[in-house]
Amino acid sequence: MSTGKANRETRNPRSPTRTVAKLIRPVSERYDHILGPIDAPVQLVEYGDYECPHCGQAYYIVKELERALANRLCFVFRNFPLTSIHLHAEHAAEAAEAAGAQGKFWEMHDCLFEHQDALDDIHLIRYAAMLSLDVPQFSRELSEHRYAARVREDFAGGMRSGVNATPTFFINSVRHDGSCDLGALLDAIEDAVATERKGEHLEEKHARRR
Question: In the chain, what are the domains?
Fold first, then answer.
């Protein structure tokens, strides 16, 4: 994982007293960029940095999860650029948001992760042209930092939710503190679903007793 100014704590998954970090801002269709049905049994939220090599690896793992889980998965990406160590991360995040304003967030998101070694402004504008965006509008919004506030809002929400490295995943609103490889994420997802089902059964049982 990449860490920068956001590094606020040391995680100890073996500690019996560790707190469970939860997502402060719930997933919202009005705010978030979402892939999959919002009412899917699995909500996976990633706080990521387009220049982070670990996020670059996680990008392909998420693609595998999407194929494996299909409509059981709702995936959300939120910006968490570590500007102290990644020079182009914040502007790349703004570029994705500018593309999103033209209805092509996910296309730009994919393009940025697939070209992590070329995230300067010249390339960002080139990607906008490749995606058939309105390039003059895109360039103007990028130069004006039109979506900088949105990126900062994502970052602040991540900090409040206990994000201290990239990538950080939340599975059904609970921070995943284990490995980010495919097997570990699949296991954590199945555990989260099983836990929620168990909770639902207990609630139904208590409701019947009333």
Answer: 34-209 (3.40.30.10)
